[in-house]
Specification:
9 helices
Length: 203
């Protein structure tokens, strides 16, 4: 790969427009772009979005850029925070646009649409291993997102909520006990469905 591109962009996903200054010194920038793709030195993530360093990348940054705005959530966050024991391979996020999925050389990414008023509550900034920032749900928000996205799930009592956490998700209930009950309550009010799920009563 062009050393200057790796130095400038590192593991940050970039658009062809953002690559223009680096490709501008060539007579045929688009031909150079195609050549770099053919060599495997420039990895396409989706149309008009690329990875300049195939050997070093952040799935979190990629997830944030495949659809903007979006934030990591669901089992992806619950697993990363140690709330659920399973390791997840699909990287799931919430967004304001229609839901869709992407497959590329770095993994499988899924996006689920959430209500606009609900979207910003419980979203925080985290850092990758490289020290770069990305948007992520808090564990509370990730669980609420998961509940909202699960068709047919009804949690109308604290007992049902506890069984869902303990049996279905195998969640670490000591971690759950330390969660922000007010945040969960606010999220329930802001959502456009399942407003009656009683998670806050467990905390």
């Amino acid at each position: 790969m062009e050393p200057s591109m790796q130095k400038v962009f590192g593991c940050v996903p970039v658009t062809s427009g953002e690559l223009k200054p680096e490709l501008g010194r060539y007579r045929a920038p688009q031909a150079r772009l195609a050549l770099l793709r053919k060599r495997g030195e420039l990895i396409p993530l989706r149309r008009n979005l690329y990875l300049c360093n195939p050997e070093s990348y952040s799935p979190e940054l990629i997830a944030n850029r495949l659809i903007e705005p979006s934030y990591l959530s669901y089992e992806t966050v619950l697993s990363a925070c140690g709330i659920i024991p399973e390791r997840v391979y699909c990287i799931r996020s919430s967004c304001l646009k229609r839901g869709r999925s992407f497959d590329n050389a770095t993994g499988h990414y899924e996006y689920i649409r959430v209500p606009r008023a609900y979207y910003p509550e419980g979203v925080t900034i985290r850092k990758t291993e490289q020290g770069l920032c990305y948007l992520s749900a808090t564990p509370e928000k990730a669980l609420c997102d998961l509940i909202l996205a699960t068709s047919g799930l009804r949690l109308q009592s604290p007992k049902a909520a506890r069984e869902y956490l303990e049996i279905f998700l195998r969640a670490d209930m000591d971690e759950v006990a330390a969660w922000d009950a007010d945040l969960i309550h606010n999220l329930a009010l802001l959502s456009d469905k399942k407003k009656d799920y009683p998670l806050a009563e467990l905390i």
